Amino acid sequence: MNETYGSLLKTGTRILQEAGVPDARIDAEQLLLEATGKTRSFLFIHKDGPCDPECAARYLQHLQRRCRREPLQYITGSQEFMGLPFRVSPSVLIPRQDTEILVERAIQEAKEMDSGQQILDMCCGSGAIAVSCAYYLPQAEVTACDISEDALSIAGENAEQNGVADRMTFLKSDLFTCFREWPQPPVFDLVLSNPPYIPAAIIPTLQPEVAAHEPGIALDGGEDGLDFYRILAEEAWQYMRPGALLLLEIGSDQAGAVSSLLKQDGHYGETEVIRDLAGLDRVICTRRR
Fold first, then answer.
1. Residue 37 shares a structural domain with residue 153
2. How many domains does the chain have?
3. Most buried of the four, 38, 85, 104, 145, by CB within 10 Å?
4. Residue 109 burial (CB < 10 Å; 0-12/13-18/19+)?
């Protein structure tokens, strides 16, 4: 006799709990939805109904991966961000809700512009920031850069999936290096970045989902976590029109250090620190003088 949806969910929850996985019940349900292709309401209504053996076997495989602390989003292959669906893989960081604060501020600022919405997303990863800006700003032209070809491929897929690929340009670049070869450097109204900012020595101490599975190249900010901010502070202004906005996601203890870098450079105005929903410093906002 086939297992029922309800019995599978109960078994999955127990397996994840025994493996020490946080939010075991929620993850077990999400993995069952992915394995069966059913909706939550279907599983509730048909909890005593038999589950197809192939789906049940796929579910058990998903559970085994989650027990090894592989992130749920890499198993399901997707993550919602700004109300939009995004494909994710181990080639990119999983978009996080905290980053929505940066995007919301960018959208707000862009809508207040008299004309022109040329936006640059540096270190774009999955394209969560860039694609979201393009989606919610129909007049915007968005350029997204990353050093990883795999990340750019996924970002391009996300642009297609969300219907904004025609207004986006994807460039492989180690930060601003690609622009140095252009006869006429581009100029942007907004420059956005969620760069790697975790100090290298801290990465092994992070939860296993992050330390063992998310791409190190997207996490490692150097010895003090500030390597990318130094380059951003030194070079971003060269590609910003006067008065253009720079928005940087930061670690919760980095506001002072990043603000100092921007102030020392001399090309930026006063900095504003934006906090996340937990009250932690999350985004630095400044303008080119």
1. no
2. 2
3. 145
4. middle
User: Around 48, how many Cα atoms within 13 Å sit in the side-chain half-sphere?
Assistant: 0
- Per-residue pLDDT 10s for the chain (289 aa) are 579 999 999 999 999 999 999 999 999 999 999 999 999 999 999 999 999 999 999 999 999 999 999 999 999 999 999 999 999 999 999 999 999 999 999 999 999 987 669 999 999 999 999 999 999 999 999 999 999 999 999 999 999 999 999 999 999 999 999 998 899 999 999 999 999 999 999 999 999 999 999 999 999 999 999 999 999 999 999 999 999 999 999 999 999 999 999 999 999 999 999 999 999 999 999 999 9
CATH number, domain of 83, equals 3.40.50.150
Q: State pTM to two decimals.
A: 0.94
Domain residue limits at 51: 5-68
How far is 25 from 277, CA to CA, in rounded Å? 24
